[in-house]
Specification:
This is Extradiol ring-cleavage dioxygenase class III enzyme subunit B domain-containing protein. Pfam families: LigB (PF02900). The protein has 286 residues and is an alpha/beta fold. The chain is built from nine helices and eight strands. The strands form two sheets. A six-stranded mixed sheet has the order 5-2-6-1-8-7, with helices on both faces. The chain has a two-stranded parallel ribbon with strand order 3-4.
Length: 286
């Protein structure tokens, strides 16, 4: 049986996560180093800030994408970082998704957004690996996004790294912004996180670390019916990447794959940036 690459669900947090040091940033770098040590073929990534209308999805086919500006971060942190679109793999993913019945097209003009390149810069500071960028769908159907991940899951057997970047607890309306806006301190915690944030954060960890295989897929979709889900996610966009990842990491073949919480950073009092990995790399022979 071919080995499977791990799958990551990363909470990218605020834009300041690109500029400030944190345990999450250290974990992203560790995951990137591990991937490079195994000579990955490329990265396939879904973010939270790009979605397509109606029943469609898109993949970026822009050969030289620009970057959307990042607030509260010195431009030197990102402006000279060269993105490396993997157009052959992008076109292959379009074909795979189309064959499964998705209404999918390429987008030749899309400029990448910080939710994606923040993670790439932190994981691979010395250079962006070949990357395929896939949109979400604006109807935010959990089963739809899970099927997207399941459709692209076979690429894990070809040494591609699948990543979803969104948020475990990500409700911008309930964050406390004053320390960041006044003092550029995104990690200030004048009070503990509120109970709704703590409760949903724990529910996400329990699902990811205590289920696997098809049970993981079922449990991840049920999280959207959790009584604290709407408190933790005022909009669904930052949770779709988690469903995409569950599709890529929740096959019967993944039944014994371990899900781990690798790092965590609370921001703005109530935003929980949990970093999860499904599965593990095989040890490198010495």
């Amino acid at each position: 049986m071919a080995s499977l690459t791990p799958v990551h669900f990363f909470s990218h947090g605020s834009t300041m996560m690109l500029g400030e040091e944190s345990e999450s940033a250290d974990y992203w770098k560790k995951c990137g180093d591990e991937a490079l040590a195994r000579n990955i073929q490329g990265v396939i990534i879904m973010g939270a800030h790009w979605d397509a209308l109606n029943d469609s999805i898109q993949l970026s086919t822009n050969p030289t994408p620009g970057k959307s500006p990042v607030a509260y971060v010195n431009p030197e942190k990102y402006i000279n970082y060269t993105l490396t679109p993997d157009l052959p793999t992008t076109n292959r993913c379009i074909t795979l998704l189309k064959n499964e019945g998705f209404n999918v097209t390429g987008n030749p003009t899309f400029d990448w957004i910080h939710d994606v390149y923040l993670i790439l810069i932190r994981m691979f500071p010395s250079g962006c690996p070949p990357t395929t960028l896939i949109s979400a769908n604006a109807r935010y159907d959990p089963h739809f996004h899970m099927k997207m991940g399941a459709t692209l899951r076979p690429l894990r057997k070809e040494n591609f790294l699948i990543i979803g970047t969104g948020g475990a607890v990500h409700n911008l309306y309930r964050n406390r912004w004053a320390p960041m806006l006044k003092f550029r301190d995104n990690f200030a915690m004048e009070t503990p996180p509120e109970d709704w944030a703590l409760e949903f954060r724990q529910a996400v960890e329990d699902v990811i670390t205590k289920t696997s295989g098809v049970q993981l897929r079922r449990a991840m979709t049920r999280l959207m019916k959790h009584p604290r889900f709407r408190d933790a996610h005022a909009t669904d966009d930052h949770f779709m990447a988690a469903l995409f990842v569950a599709g890529a990491a929740g096959d019967e073949e993944d039944a014994d794959a371990e899900g781990v919480l690798g790092a965590e950073s609370w921001e703005l009092t109530n935003m929980c940036n949990s970093q999860f990995t499904f599965g593990k790399w095989k040890e490198i022979a010495v």
